[in-house]
Task: inverse folding
């Protein structure tokens, strides 16, 4: 698969990442087949979190991969920490414990990337800095990033954190593209003009932070898939039309739409369906035109003032 | 007319600019009379865009001005590019083509100012930088700016663009002043507190970017003129009262309200009516008091917490 | 009482400040008792504004304190200026006049801290800078800050103002915590995601500006007290539960919730009730756990995505 460098690092990653949030729903045999298919497609970047499946996803993944040192070198593993029952927690103590838990479940001694999962209102950036420093020195984490963070939160972290923030995982899909729409409607009276992210997209471009869109096929907050959904007739007509033009599925076009954006995003695809996985990876071979990108945008119901 | 320097440049411009968006609605004779009146008033800064009247506005303007080298030196011409049918386009190729089109229609070999018309979601600032560099080197454009842009978008451009951003054309009038109201209602539960522009007004002041208010007499998004409009009884009462005090028309006061703001704005007046044009330029001679500015603001329905 | 340094200064201030906005409602004897109680509790930081009670609060305070040079050295006095009838005014002339008025009413020759009360749309930061410079040189004001300001407004001031901005007084309570909630809901479709303050909380942390929460017991914009209010059953149940655990009143917990935040805030308590004053100061001795802080947050109706 086509690769890119992650954020400001030299780490080569496939442009489509594999989200393992639901891998515990697969049987061991299914999980093994799923991961092998991904690897055959060149999709060797796997996204985890300590809380996915209560930790079960990381374990299931390691088992399905028959993790050992040789295998470990062939994959890139990202995990997240900071969400606990009833609260978020970016304390040094919790970050260190969470990573140790992930490493144990993943049967590895290092993560390629660690993300802070959701902004903790009580974050003390000095503690995050100490935790990151320790994890890097110990060789437990190679690169650090965030998830669902806005610019000033990242600035606050950077006041103390020495390591570059390499990624920011954000909810973004054709139908959940307010972070794109706001930029084209600013200062308008309409709903799209309402600021909800403080220009996180442009901020990430400015600072060479890779945006990892999560839920690239969903609308709302986990409400459902927009593909082939009768709630989005115009969008699906347009996606099907363009998919036919390229001889690919609408899944491919949905991912290609994200990849077409010049921010050089790395969508995280969490489907557990082999065909969708293949179709998603196929997007790396498609380069939508500017016209097609805007046609899809408009078909999703956004407008150009 | 009173002049000001545009952004951080040494370019002297009249404090009221003339918007030519509707000049193709005038007959050649009317257009000639309109432009001559503007010039007699010292209003020699003309705002265009490649898309106004499908290009016809630029042509009509050049004809009405009987453009030649001598005439060219007496006027300042600003145009815009980047809006295409069904999409925005800040690609290098399109910017260069668009400027060539404008120059041809305007019968000139340079623009004083070129603005990027509306933020292109697919902007690649490296391409914009190359286009600007080329246009400046070729002598086709003297100064560069933007329109309807927010701070982070400008920051992203500035990451690559070497030339200063001298202007940002923004919709702003007494009744469309959310960018002012937000600053006085932040952190409130009311509608004005909702952020729609990420402090673009203060950002422009901070970075010496001239704000050019567009549609200074309109409410809503091209919904209508608020002056003498029964929908705004209190505002019109106040404007008439202050207009009477200064012995001018309410048009003059509407522009004087923008000029009173310390951001040193350059309103772009797009009226094609000679009397309104004269009344608009008259605003350069009026300095509203702080009390009057706030009285008008409050009469428009805003409040002070 | 536990103390902290104010902003980036070396000034030691108690972590709970006393708001004197309603002190003119007390009789001279009550006011004297109120202030003496505060001083006995170590709460020697008093927050004023030139407009509180039309100036009467500052006078009443000075009388109740029997102000003289010895007394003056035992207290820290903060006042504000910039709000006038029907407008805000940060002109040099007005700032200087306002401070002179406050000093006269307070029977002192200096303020420890001067805040600009509410952002003036017509602010000219050069004038603010001149006023601050003059006030500092004359020894009339030791430190300068703002109130109800957002990041870009502070940046604009800092373009010219040489003195550090040491404090930003902002409306913040458990039930008015949108500036906290926005940071945990960004990029969501819900109401909390709507940006109303441009990350002022994180900005203040980033720049070592002390946030002084005002109205720490109120919901809405002066709508009422949330403590013991049947409109907030779940919140009050939680506050009572935690208060019982620590053997303190719910007032104490409401303030302790603000003090638990790592931004190192200095709540301004404006109650004129002696028991509430004591309970508020008691909060300096309580350190809520992370769990308790989040439990209170959730009980107030916010959610964690």
Result:
């Amino acid at each position: 698969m086509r690769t890119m460098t992650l954020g400001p690092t030299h780490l080569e990653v496939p442009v489509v990442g594999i989200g393992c949030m639901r891998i515990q729903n697969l049987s061991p045999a299914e999980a093994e087949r799923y991961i092998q298919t991904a690897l055959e497609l060149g999709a060797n970047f796997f996204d985890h979190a300590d809380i996915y499946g209560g930790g079960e996803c990381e374990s299931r993944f390691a088992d399905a991969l028959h993790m050992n040192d040789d295998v470990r070198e062939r994959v890139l593993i990202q995990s997240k920490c900071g969400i606990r029952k009833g609260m978020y927690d970016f304390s040094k103590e919790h970050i260190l414990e969470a990573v140790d838990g992930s490493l144990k479940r993943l049967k590895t001694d290092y993560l390629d990337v660690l993300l802070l999962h959701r902004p903790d209102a009580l974050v003390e950036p000095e503690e995050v800095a100490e935790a990151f420093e320790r994890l890097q020195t110990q060789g437990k984490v190679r690169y650090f990033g965030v998830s669902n963070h806005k610019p000033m939160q990242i600035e606050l972290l950077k006041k103390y954190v020495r390591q570059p923030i390499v990624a920011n995982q954000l909810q973004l899909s054709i139908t959940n593209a307010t972070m794109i729409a706001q930029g084209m409607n600013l200062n308008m009276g309409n709903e799209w003009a309402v600021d909800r992210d403080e220009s996180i997209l442009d901020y990430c471009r400015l600072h060479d932070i890779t945006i990892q869109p999560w839920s690239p096929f969903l609308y709302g907050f986990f409400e459902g898939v927009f593909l082939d959904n009768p709630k989005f007739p115009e969008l699906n007509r347009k996606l099907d039309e363009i998919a036919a033009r390229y001889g690919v599925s609408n899944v491919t076009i949905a991912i290609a739409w994200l990849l077409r954006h010049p921010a050089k995003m790395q969508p995280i695809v969490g489907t557990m369906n082999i065909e969708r996985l293949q179709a998603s990876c196929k997007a790396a071979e498609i380069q939508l035109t500017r016209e097609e990108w805007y046609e899809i945008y408009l078909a999703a119901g956004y407008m150009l003032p």
About this structure: The domain at 3-175+201-225+262-286 of chain C is CATH 3.20.20.100 (TIM Barrel). The first helix of chain C runs from residue 28 to 40. The mean pLDDT of chain C is 97. Chain C has one domain: 3-175+201-225+262-286.
